[in-house]
Amino acid sequence: MEPLLQVEDLRTYFYTRRGVVKAVDGVSFSVAPGETLGIVGESGSGKTITSLSLLRLVPQPGGKIVGGKILFEGVNLLQLSEAEMRDYRGSKISMILQDPMASLNPVYTIGEQVAEPLRQHQHLAGKTLWDKVTEALRLLRIPSPRERLRNYPHEMSGGMRQRVVGGIAISCRPKLIIADEPTTALDATIQAQYLALLKDLQRQTNVAIIFVSHDFGIVARMCDRVAVMYAGKIVETASVRELFSNPQHPYTIGLVNSVPRLDRKVERLASIEGQPPALLNLPPGCRFAPRCYAVFDRCWQEEPPRVRAADGHFASCWNVLYPPSPTEKEEAASTGHARA
User: Fold this and answer.
1) Per-residue pLDDT at 82 exceeds 90
2) Are 191 and 183 in contact (CB under 8 A)?
3) pLDDT digit string, tens, across residues 233-242
4) Hey, CA dihedral for 293, 24, 4, 201, is it positive or negative?
5) Exposed, middle or buried by CB within 10 Å (0-12, 13-18, 19+), for 137?
6) Is the whole model's pTM more than 0.70, yes or no?
7) 276: which residues sit within 8 A by CB, 6+ positions away?
8) Pairing mode, if any, of strands 176-180 and 93-96?
9) pLDDT category, 321, cuts 50, 70, 90?
């Protein structure tokens, strides 16, 4: 199947007084129609900036997309004018932001905010417009949608506000939705309901979803494939089943091991020692090397290539290309010493 979205070597930098911050540095991935791709990683790994780059909404004036391609249905979005790009935002590609209270304007009614993309992209008005707005709210299972059109954001609960943001995103029936940690502010019950709504919506419309999260439980439930980000790069890509059953990159292994399991009783949860590197003046070699239990000399000198670990499974790690022996792996895990 031809990909709906193809991102190739995307680079987004921030130019500051202290130097150049390489927030997204050579990211490549694809999304097929109707597919859900999860992007996971620690805070600061580049997930949100990658999402904003796809819509060319990088914070200004410091941020700039300096290289790569963003091919949507074969069209390179980086070559479009700002006016042409506005035709894509909300119409063909929509984004659900993390905090609905920051996304919604407190002085406009819910109806006006859901109606805005329909006016802009489909030039609707009158009864046709408000029927479409009501349909969008009903699709997100908001009770009494006609009455809710006159409400303001502060008059709704957090779960309802998040559904309204989803209603804005789907109002023009886009082909791709970017969901940037849309369940962070929701409690467990409302979170489960919202995720079920997104899956139902996807089945009805065949929309593709990029789901940005740091919650592996949500990723396992929602996604078909997963891209793991660390320090501005994608270090591993695989199907959900493959990633959980056979992670290859030491960072992914650490993330998977840190998730509590109901079938195991442990006194202390696993953790990854250290902190992600500052993205100013990065040293050569692997960016995860200072925190890696399987580091060896080459990791400090050369950046690892993207290696095929299995069908559809890729990881950027020297240990995948040159696997350590069982003895070396055990020694590295227990002592933290580098192998030659």
Assistant:
1) yes
2) yes
3) 999 999 999 9
4) positive
5) buried
6) yes
7) 42, 44, 45, 230, 231
8) parallel
9) confident
